[in-house]
Design goal:
2 domains; mainly alpha
Protein backbone atom coordinates (compact mmCIF):
# COMPACT_ATOMS: atom_id res chain seq x y z
CA UNK A 1 0.00 0.00 0.00
CA UNK A 2 2.95 2.30 0.58
CA UNK A 3 3.57 2.30 -3.17
CA UNK A 4 0.14 3.81 -3.88
CA UNK A 5 0.69 6.70 -1.48
CA UNK A 6 3.58 8.48 -3.18
CA UNK A 7 4.27 10.88 -0.33
CA UNK A 8 4.51 8.24 2.41
CA UNK A 9 7.80 8.11 4.30
CA UNK A 10 8.34 5.42 6.95
CA UNK A 11 11.06 7.54 8.59
CA UNK A 12 8.74 10.53 8.98
CA UNK A 13 8.04 11.47 12.64
CA UNK A 14 4.29 11.29 12.00
CA UNK A 15 4.58 7.72 10.72
CA UNK A 16 6.65 6.73 13.73
CA UNK A 17 4.10 8.38 16.04
CA UNK A 18 1.29 6.40 14.39
CA UNK A 19 3.17 3.14 14.93
CA UNK A 20 3.87 4.09 18.57
CA UNK A 21 0.19 4.88 19.21
CA UNK A 22 -0.78 1.52 17.71
CA UNK A 23 1.73 -0.35 19.88
CA UNK A 24 0.58 1.47 23.02
CA UNK A 25 -3.07 0.69 22.25
CA UNK A 26 -2.30 -2.99 21.69
CA UNK A 27 -0.29 -3.15 24.92
CA UNK A 28 -3.15 -1.60 26.89
CA UNK A 29 -5.61 -4.08 25.38
CA UNK A 30 -3.37 -7.04 26.22
CA UNK A 31 -2.87 -5.81 29.79
CA UNK A 32 -6.62 -5.29 30.21
CA UNK A 33 -7.32 -8.81 28.96
CA UNK A 34 -4.83 -10.28 31.43
CA UNK A 35 -7.18 -9.37 34.29
CA UNK A 36 -9.97 -11.57 32.92
CA UNK A 37 -10.06 -14.91 34.75
CA UNK A 38 -11.86 -17.14 32.25
CA UNK A 39 -10.10 -18.18 29.03
CA UNK A 40 -13.46 -18.18 27.26
CA UNK A 41 -14.09 -14.58 28.30
CA UNK A 42 -10.63 -13.59 27.07
CA UNK A 43 -11.54 -15.03 23.67
CA UNK A 44 -14.85 -13.13 23.63
CA UNK A 45 -13.25 -9.82 24.66
CA UNK A 46 -10.41 -10.19 22.16
CA UNK A 47 -12.93 -10.70 19.36
CA UNK A 48 -14.86 -7.63 20.50
CA UNK A 49 -11.66 -5.56 20.38
CA UNK A 50 -10.90 -6.93 16.91
CA UNK A 51 -14.40 -6.06 15.73
CA UNK A 52 -13.80 -2.43 16.68
CA UNK A 53 -11.08 -2.30 14.02
CA UNK A 54 -13.14 -3.99 11.31
CA UNK A 55 -15.25 -1.00 10.16
CA UNK A 56 -12.11 1.14 9.86
CA UNK A 57 -10.60 -1.44 7.51
CA UNK A 58 -13.80 -1.81 5.50
CA UNK A 59 -14.21 1.93 4.90
CA UNK A 60 -10.51 2.37 4.11
CA UNK A 61 -10.71 -0.39 1.50
CA UNK A 62 -13.83 1.18 -0.01
CA UNK A 63 -12.01 4.51 -0.21
CA UNK A 64 -8.94 2.98 -1.83
CA UNK A 65 -10.84 0.85 -4.36
CA UNK A 66 -13.03 3.82 -5.32
CA UNK A 67 -10.02 6.06 -6.00
CA UNK A 68 -9.07 6.57 -9.63
CA UNK A 69 -5.54 7.50 -8.53
CA UNK A 70 -5.06 4.15 -6.77
CA UNK A 71 -7.09 1.77 -8.96
CA UNK A 72 -7.06 3.52 -12.33
CA UNK A 73 -9.63 2.12 -14.73
CA UNK A 74 -10.50 -0.67 -12.25
CA UNK A 75 -12.00 1.63 -9.62
CA UNK A 76 -15.44 0.88 -8.21
CA UNK A 77 -18.44 2.07 -10.17
CA UNK A 78 -21.06 4.09 -8.27
CA UNK A 79 -23.37 1.12 -7.74
CA UNK A 80 -20.63 -1.06 -6.27
CA UNK A 81 -19.41 1.80 -4.08
CA UNK A 82 -22.86 2.38 -2.59
CA UNK A 83 -23.42 -1.34 -2.09
CA UNK A 84 -20.09 -1.58 -0.26
CA UNK A 85 -20.90 1.48 1.85
CA UNK A 86 -24.24 -0.06 2.85
CA UNK A 87 -22.43 -3.26 3.81
CA UNK A 88 -19.89 -1.27 5.84
CA UNK A 89 -22.66 0.58 7.69
CA UNK A 90 -24.42 -2.73 8.40
CA UNK A 91 -21.22 -4.29 9.80
CA UNK A 92 -20.64 -1.16 11.90
CA UNK A 93 -24.15 -1.36 13.37
CA UNK A 94 -23.68 -5.05 14.15
CA UNK A 95 -20.40 -4.26 15.91
CA UNK A 96 -22.05 -1.55 18.00
CA UNK A 97 -24.70 -4.07 19.07
CA UNK A 98 -21.94 -6.59 19.89
CA UNK A 99 -20.05 -4.09 22.04
CA UNK A 100 -23.21 -2.99 23.89
CA UNK A 101 -24.29 -6.59 24.52
CA UNK A 102 -20.82 -7.71 25.63
CA UNK A 103 -20.28 -4.98 28.21
CA UNK A 104 -23.89 -4.80 29.42
Amino acid sequence: MQESLQNYDAQDPHSKLGVLITIIGATIAICALSFVTSPFNILIYSQVFLSIQLPITIFLQIYLTSSKRVMGKYKNVWFTKWLLLATGVFVTLLNIVLIVETFK
